[in-house]
UniProtKB/TrEMBL annotation:
Key words of the record: Isomerase
The keyword Lipid metabolism is assigned to this record: no
Source organism of this protein record: Vreelandella nigrificans
Top-level lineage group: Bacteria
Molecular function GO labels: amino-acid racemase activity
PANTHER family: ASPARTATE-GLUTAMATE RACEMASE FAMILY, GLUTAMATE RACEMASE
Family: Belongs to the aspartate/glutamate racemases family.
Pfam family, one: Asp_Glu_race
Protein known as: Aspartate/glutamate racemase
Species classification: Bacteria, Pseudomonadati, Pseudomonadota, Gammaproteobacteria, Oceanospirillales
């Protein structure tokens, strides 16, 4: 089993989901008392959140690249960045390390290809929904077109993530709002909807809707476990 590196804390609410899922999948694969070999660095999200709001992505990239080098130095053999939004600075991280960087969008795009999905809806922070770093990779590498909610719905999705989910608050009213947005994307032609923020899976899952949902945390974890076990 190879050692999985995890760069988390963005937010810690979803990072704990990564830790749990990595260990569960390794145990399911190997049985007994097996658990994942993990090297993790969890950073202070307050600093990153301020840089997001001010648009200082270069400084954010430098901070995450530095943390990634610490993970590599500690013995990790691959790296997971446990957040969708901060994959915007993935090039800075990849340039700073020698170990493989397992990109969350690739895990999602591979799932789309497996299912024959060519058009998806995307929920996430406004940075992920509105900027091109995520959507363009899905289109260019996997041939997947992306639909995003309208402006009002994007604002609601973003606000619920930062004001509630990042603080561990789960509200039924927010679940229902998300489900209406998912239904709207499906009606517009989305064959599935990507939960493109690692916190969203804390609020909704597949049992809440008949629309196929792609939980990026789960897909990312499965890709890492397959890599760690040499599949």
């Amino acid at each position: 089993m190879r050692v999985i590196g995890v760069l988390g804390g963005m937010s810690w609410e979803s990072t704990q989901s990564y830790y749990q899922a990595l260990n569960q999948e390794i145990n399911q694969a190997l049985g007994g008392f097996h658990s994942a070999q993990i090297v993790m660095v969890s950073i202070d999200f307050a600093e990153i959140e301020t840089l997001q709001k001010t648009g200082d992505w270069d400084t954010a990239g430098e901070l995450l690249a530095s943390a990634s080098k610490r993970i590599e130095k500690a013995g990790a053999e691959c790296l997971l960045l446990a957040t969708n939004t901060m994959h915007k600075v993935a090039p800075a991280i990849e340039a700073a390390i020698q170990i493989p960087f397992l990109h969350i969008t690739d895990a999602t795009g591979e799932k789309c290809q497996q299912d024959g999905v060519t058009q998806v809806g995307l929920l996430g922070t406004r940075f992920t929904m509105e900027q091109d770093f995520y959507k363009a990779r899905l289109k260019e590498c996997f041939g997947v077109d992306v639909l995003i909610p309208n402006h009002e719905d994007r604002q609601a999705v973003h606000q619920i993530i930062f004001d509630e989910l990042c603080h561990g608050q789960i509200k039924e009213s927010s679940r229902q709002r998300y489900l209406k947005i998912i239904a709207s994307l499906y009606q517009q032609g989305a064959q599935a909807v990507i939960l493109g923020c690692t916190e969203i899976a804390l609020l909704i899952d597949q049992q809440d809707t008949a629309v196929p949902l792609y939980d990026t945390t789960a897909l990312h974890v499965s890709k890492a476990v397959a890599w760690a076990l040499g599949d």
